[in-house]
Design brief:
Low-confidence stretches: 3-8
Strand content: under 5%
Number of helices: 30
Order of helices and strands: HHHHHHHHHHHHHHHHHHHHHHHHHHHHHH
Largest sheet: none
Shape: elongated
Structural class: mainly alpha
Number of strands: 0
Helix content: 55-70%
Length: about 650
């Protein structure tokens, strides 16, 4: 290893055997997260990735194939995390959708990542005590709460564990003098890297981390072998990046550059580097969703100032590296780990605590090395007892552990999560909208509406709160107000099918059939045979009193969805309105056999028989409906009308 980064200093714990050090690491990784077992799924990807992900409900060759196909262009599977999805499938086999086993899985993966990081750092020149304290800090750092307490973020500890294992085996390849052992180690490193990529695509950073380790830590005579080994990673790495860019572009995950240009996007990179570094040094006011203001131009003083600070820090690192090459390792590891999320490629993601999971390892190692150097300086100058350094590390570890324990409570459920986010940023439109959704689910509709209005004020270009307000008003029968909000959604996002459906229904209910028909016909061009588009036109034609035309569209909807009860009911009712009683009765009879407990079917079938001139059969059918539901007002009303007519 490079002689200029050898350390004479070490910290307490260097004398511990590996198993004992691992015990301390496991305890540090588990204890702060014990209170997550009472946490639930949250409406922040948990629903999309786990609860509504059908592929994890079966664990067979077909479902595994679907998971793996997510990494291929043209795949219909949205969850682009095959190995992570496989672990969720195992949890589903254990506990269904009971959250405790998913939290257990996250904690165990965090433990694995910490233990493997310990093994990796023990390969370095920092001393075993330094390695132990670095990993203890890593295990309890509050910035990792999002990656561990949030079930959908399992990809972070899983990919990190595999990444650390891959890097450790690569180091074994570099240091081994046996050709056979070197070959096996390199193969294992590639296989572990592949698994890490299947857990999360950002594991593509491994060659960069390996290069940083080679350049700073390994002996100079080992560099040639290490570089040759890294060349083996080049082709599969490039192929993986190219493939994933195609997949992400297909799914609209890669969007245009912030501000419309690459230069404007890079204005935010310096800002992100400083914010992420700040979260590691002072993990306070952690948030689920950070808002990043777009630069106002290439001369924006905030972002220019951030870049100036970054360049000054980079210069200081270069100067310091002349005496302490280890500084290059910490800075290099930190930057390389964050490369996928620094807006160099514009993903639909801004800034998140979980992105620091791997990057934070460099920070924790730097703190432990600094503590070791301080201990060495105190001992050399006889300026006092080195115990003070150990006490300082203990205080920092306990403080981080307590902060982690407290932060876990924020992730207890969706309401606590978004309430905390709003408390820290009252103008976060995502948080306002999501908390409104939670209130709506629990019947607090007026509070939900207030939050949606606040979300719109915070960001008038975010369409979701408009849609939520439109849905609420439509559900409450205020279709005019619903249409007003849904029209705003259409202006922002013109082609969302569910919004167009709600808007066209609002038009039908507010006697605007032509507007409804316009939307439905537009959708029929994009989706020929659309059931709901035909139903909308059918209902619009009924509003226009054109029952003959309505029958044709209802027939098309029923034909497109032969097993759809609603489509068949609308078709039969339209036939009835068009006085085609026999045809309507045939459909209602078939529905009565398929859905014998559907009271409305029996009542409508009775109406058809009555209009066909068979009142006795109609009364029999309505009495059957009353047997199913003795309180049914319609059946009672029709039977009473028949009795009154007989008296007359």
């Amino acid at each position: 290893m490079n002689s200029d980064i050898k350390r004479k200093s070490d910290l307490p714990g260097s004398e511990l055997p590996l198993w004992a050090a691992c015990v301390f690491v496991v305890l540090a990784a588990v204890i702060p997260y014990l209170n997550t077992f009472g946490n639930d799924f949250v409406t922040y990807d948990d629903y999309d990735l786990i609860l509504n992900n059908k592929t994890i409900r079966t664990l067979d060759a077909r479902s595994i194939g679907e998971m793996l196909s997510a990494y291929l262009p043209g795949s219909q599977t949205d969850v682009n995390l095959p190995l992570t999805a496989l672990t969720w499938a195992l949890n589903y086999r254990i506990s269904g959708y009971s959250a405790w086993s998913y939290h257990l899985g996250n904690i165990l993966l965090h433990v694995a990542a910490c233990v493997l990081l310990l093994l990796l750092f023990r390969c370095g020149p920092w001393g075993r005590g330094v390695a132990l304290w670095a990993v203890l800090l890593f295990a309890v750092h509050p910035v990792h709460v999002e990656a561990v307490a949030w079930l959908a973020a399992r990809k972070e500890p899983l990919s990190a564990a595999l990444l650390f294992a891959s890097l450790a085996t690569f180091i074994s390849f570099v240091r081994s003098r046996s050709l056979a052992i070197s070959g096996v180690a390199l193969l294992c490193s590639i296989l572990l890297w592949t698994a890490a990529l299947l857990a999360k695509p950002t594991a593509v950073i491994l060659p960069g981390l390996a290069f940083v380790w080679l350049a700073v830590v390994e002996r100079r005579e080992s560099l040639r072998k290490g570089i040759a080994g890294l060349a083996v990673f080049a082709l599969p790495g490039a192929l993986f990046v190219w493939t994933q860019m195609q997949v992400l572009a297909e799914r609209n995950v890669v969007s245009g550059h912030l501000g419309g240009s690459f230069a404007m996007t890079q204005m935010t990179t310096g800002f992100l580097l400083l914010r992420y570094a700040g979260l590691l040094f002072a993990p306070v006011n952690l948030s689920t969703h950070y808002i990043i203001r777009l630069p106002e131009g290439l001369t924006d003083p905030l972002y220019l100032g951030c870049w100036l600070v970054v360049l000054m820090i980079a210069g200081a690192v270069v100067v310091a590296a002349r005496r302490r090459r280890g500084v290059l390792f910490y800075a290099g590891w930190f930057v390389v780990s964050l490369l996928p999320v620094l807006h160099i490629v514009q993903f639909r993601a801004g800034m998140a605590d979980r992105y620091l999971y791997v990057a934070s390892a460099a920070f924790c190692l730097g703190v432990a090395v600094a503590a070791g150097k301080l201990s060495e300086a105190v001992e050399a100058r006889k300026a006092g007892s080195t115990t003070i350094v150990l006490i300082g590390l203990l205080i920092l570890t306990v403080t981080f552990s307590y902060a982690t324990f407290q932060r876990n409570k924020v992730w207890r459920n969706s309401e606590t999560l978004w309430s905390d986010t709003i408390k820290k940023n009252p103008f976060n439109t995502i948080a306002l909208n999501n908390l409104g959704s939670e209130y709506e689910k629990t019947g607090r509709v007026e509070e939900a509406k207030d939050l949606y209005v606040r979300a719109i004020r915070a960001d008038p270009n975010h369409f979701v709160p408009y849609e939520n307000l439109g849905t609420i008003y439509g559900r409450n029968g205020d279709y005019a107000q619903a249409a007003e909000y849904l029209e705003k959604v259409q202006k922002l996002e013109p082609d969302i099918p569910r919004v167009l459906r709600k808007l066209s229904m609002s038009y039908v209910e507010t006697d605007r059939p032509d507007d409804a028909i316009g939307i439905a016909r537009r959708m029929l061009v994009a989706e020929p045979g659309s059931v709901w588009a035909n139903q909308i036109i059918c209902r619009s034609m009924l509003v226009k009193k054109d029952t003959a035309s309505a029958v044709g569209y209802c027939a098309a909807a029923a034909e497109a969805a032969p097993g759809d009860m609603q489509a068949a009911m609308i078709y039969a009712n339209t036939l009835f309105l068009n006085k085609q009683y026999s045809d309507a009765a045939s459909i209602f009879s078939a529905l009565a056999k398929a859905y014998p407990d559907a009271i409305s079917v029996w009542i409508n079938l009775g109406l058809c028989r009555y209009m066909e001139g068979d009142p006795a059969e109609a009364a029999k059918l309505w009495r059957h409906a009353l047997q199913l539901d003795p309180r049914n007002k319609k059946a009672k009303e029709y039977l009473e009308q028949m009795r009154m007519m007989k008296k007359q």
